Amino acid sequence: MKSKVKIPATRAEAIQTGSKVYLGKPCHAGHHEGRNLSGGCIVCHRATVSKIYCDARDTQQAEWASQEARKPRLKPLPPLPDWMTLQPPKVKRIRKKADESYAGEAEDNIAASFRDRTP
User: Fold this and answer.
1) Residues 6 or more apart whose Cβ sits within 8 Å of residue 36
2) pLDDT for 34-43, tens place per residue?
3) Measured in whole angstroms, how far is the alpha carbon of residue 36 from the centre of its chain?
4) Does the pLDDT at position 99 exceed 60?
5) Do the Cβ atoms of 44 and 30 come closer than 8 Å?
6) Backbone conformation region of residue 34, classed left if phi is above 0, alpha if psi is from -120 to 50, else beta
7) Exposure pattern of 52-72 as b/e (b: 16+ CB <10 Å)?
């Protein structure tokens, strides 16, 4: 069961007891819930902060949408020129030759590393 905490009735009592809120008189909007030591109504403060947060969020979302709309869209690539379409057989030969020479070097390196390790 929760124990009820006594909230000070005046600002001076709140300062003496170390409380951060006190009851005091109702705010301009008629709220009786309590006031901060700075004198502001707790309920009005929550409403203001909530409104500021929601406005900032809406503004940020609108800004993101406008940034997204301004982004340049990717254009399709132009067709390949004729000389590039004729190259693949030559490129394949070069790559095959390079792969063969590299594979041979790799096998030699592996064999050499095992020879060095054997006692």
Assistant:
1) 20, 21, 42, 45
2) 888 887 888 8
3) 34
4) yes
5) no
6) left
7) eeeeeeeeeeeeeeeeeeeee
pLDDT of 5 above 70: yes
Sign of CA pseudo-dihedral 83, 88, 93, 98: positive
Predicted TM-score (pTM) of the model is 0.44
Eight-state DSSP code of residue 35: E
Instruction: Specify whether the CB–CB gap between 62 and 70 falls below 8 A.
Output: no
**Sign (positive or negative) of CA dihedral 26, 28, 31, 35:** negative
Residue 50: per-residue pLDDT: 86
Q: Where are the domains of the chain?
A: 11-60, 82-117
